[in-house]
Design brief:
- Strand 16 (315-319) and strand 17 form a beta hairpin.
- This protein is 32% helix and 24% strand.
- Helix 2 (68-78) runs parallel beside helix 4 (115-127).
- With 362 residues, the protein is an alpha/beta fold.
- The protein has eight helices and 19 strands.
Length: 362
């Protein structure tokens, strides 16, 4: 074979090789892209972030309201493909069955049934096709329009597949600070009104002011309520107490774009053997806090815990490989307190564990 023919054959073979190689790598890259898309919506996480709103575009109440522009920016962010806004019942079911949730699972809740829910939030969420749960205190609802929703408006929303109605007791009193008998009567009164007005009694509960006691949790469980929500900042997972699940509360001051993005990208820190068992502080104030972190979580030395009444982080001791003990010397003042523990997580996210404490001393 002369040189010219050899060169021609080499060029042809090289071209075939390059085409096959290109096709091979294109297939790999395409498969990788498909896999990335699948992973984005895959059920890979035992974690959910649950958001809590109250009022919308009510300037007179900045501590419980978000303005229309803030809420629109929240919805716009949540519409991005990496987030999965899903019904609260789907989150609850996954937790109870120990099943994974879609990545960055988000639940939206609204407490108290103010009129601005119907006027502002409902149309915006409906347009975005985002489900939410509305927790109602029955005492505030009247058949005439005022600062709160009417039963006609609630019935309209209850018939929408996007809306779930939740139980927020009757008088919007602190069920943790009244007697257990009074708390039972308040809940029963709401039960009767729900049954009369809606034809059913909601089985998802939200504690007024986020305050609860172990005795109140036991009573709720006896009535068939298996899931109840408090009001303290933390991501949740299947290891969380189903009768005191956390929610991130949002208002005008704490709804900046940066904070909102940080919150909805947090992960639940998987823990067991939490102490103390009760959030009620009596002779154990300040509390000795301890929990065991799942052994798959590494670099616990990066964990920091911040009591709400102190300007400096608490002292953390790591016992063995994954037992955390938290100590500080200053007692919680009267009222609601909390501690927030955070540490870096994969993919530039953060683990966020919050714990509530209540000092009802007189």
């Amino acid at each position: 074979m002369n040189l010219k023919k050899k060169l021609s054959k080499f060029i042809i073979l090289t071209g075939v090789f390059l085409n096959v190689t290109t096709l091979f790598y294109s297939t790999i890259l395409h498969a990788k892209t498909i896999e990335e898309i699948k992973n984005n919506n895959a059920h890979n996480e035992d974690s959910a972030v649950i958001l809590l709103y109250h009022r919308f575009d009510e300037d007179k109440y900045p501590t419980t309201s978000v303005n229309r522009d803030q809420f629109m920016r929240h919805i716009t962010e949540l519409k991005k493909k990496k987030y999965n806004v899903i019904p609260l019942r789907q989150i609850i079911k996954a937790f109870s069955q120990k099943r994974k949730l879609p990545n960055r699972a988000i639940g939206i809740t609204i407490d108290d049934a103010f009129a601005s829910v119907y006027d502002v939030a409902y149309p915006m969420l409906k347009k975005a096709n985002m489900p939410f749960t509305l927790f109602i205190s029955t005492l505030t609802i009247r058949n005439k329009r005022g600062h709160y929703l009417t039963w006609d408006q609630i019935r309209e929303m209850a018939n929408d597949p996007l809306v779930t109605i939740g139980h927020h007791a009757h008088g919007h009193i602190s069920l943790a600070q009244t007697s257990l008998d009074n708390a039972k009567k308040d809940i029963k009164l709401a039960d009767d009104i729900f049954k009369k007005e809606l034809g059913f009694i909601p089985k998802i509960f939200s504690y007024p002011f986020g305050e609860y006691t172990p005795e109140l949790q036991t009573h709720l469980k006896s009535t068939g309520i298996k899931t109840a929500f408090a009001q303290y900042s933390s991501a949740a997972n299947s290891l969380s107490d189903p009768l005191s699940l956390p929610r991130f509360a949002l208002n005008e001051k704490y709804s900046s774009d940066g904070r909102f993005k940080l919150i909805i990208n947090t992960l639940a820190l998987p823990i067991r053997d939490l102490l103390p068992l009760s959030p009620i502080l009596k002779d154990n104030n300040p509390p000795a806090i301890g929990f065991t972190v799942d052994k798959r979580i590494k670099y616990l030395k990066n964990l920091n815990c911040y009591p709400s009444h102190l300007k400096t982080p608490a002292k953390i001791t790591i016992i063995g490989k994954n037992r955390i003990e938290i100590r500080f010397d200053t007692a919680y003042p009267k009222g609601r307190g909390r501690i927030n523990c955070t540490m870096p997580a994969p993919n530039k996210r953060f683990y966020w564990l919050g714990l509530p404490f209540f000092n009802f001393s007189k």
